[in-house]
Amino acid sequence: MSLATAGARASLRSSSRPLLALALDRHRRPYRSSPAATSAAARGRRRAVLLQVRAARTESAGVSVGFRAPEFELPEPLTGKLWTLDDFQGNPALLVMFVCNHCPFVKHLKKDIAKLSSFYMEKGLAAVAISSNSIVTHPQDGPEYMAEEAKLYKYPFPYLYDESQEVAKAFQAVCTPEFYLFKKDGRRPFELFYHGQFDDSRPSNNVPVTGRAMDAVEASWSWFICSWWLFDIRNAKLHMNGTDSVLGLRFSDCIFFLI
């Protein structure tokens, strides 16, 4: 594993929340602890958080560059339309985002995700957001609220509902938000080019939202025309939040994307 790959995985685990029902019985009543159990839980809270983070890192490690995009057929609550992977075959790249309504990390990024996705979709990128969270544990992640969310924030991409969570399992998605960028060459299947976080911004850490990880979109379109050791797209600029954010890849980024 390269240092850049390890760094990307470490940043992913600290910028996301585990998908809530992948390890839960969808029909099981929410667990309510007794007073004694509550005390024990308080003492073990740090350990539980650590184990949760480790689980996310372990599961995410199974997806690597070259992983083929799984087939799916999911409804879009806003329109009622069923979307499949085939609907995006005419695009050179596909961004798949696992998100949900309630996640604080998603809330922190959602406006900029919509803005940056719209920018690249005008250039030919296809994008889709998927919510796989259980409405048993979080009713606010249900399809009717997803439709409201998509309309409120004017998502330029379809926001799909994965009720069975089978699509999340196929992608090996374990947290929100989690980003997968796939590229394709002609009629070949979509293959994974980038998997990880949106950028280094977190709620309350005062780091500006830049969408730095989305530089991979530019990289995916330039795969065959740039040598990896010379790769540089610093002249591409995007106007976000009233400032010009320079999109560029450093040497370490290229190592992560190209190994």
Automatic annotation (TrEMBL):
Q: Which Pfam families match?
A: AhpC-TSA
Q: What is this protein called?
A: Peroxiredoxin
Q: Which GO terms describe its molecular function?
A: antioxidant activity; oxidoreductase activity
Record InterPro entries: AhpC/TSA (IPR000866), PRX-like1 (IPR047262), Thioredoxin-like_sf (IPR036249), Thioredoxin_domain (IPR013766)
In what residue span(s) does the Thioredoxin domain sit?
63-219
UniProt xrefs under Gene3D superfamilies: Glutaredoxin
| Species of the source | Oryza brachyantha
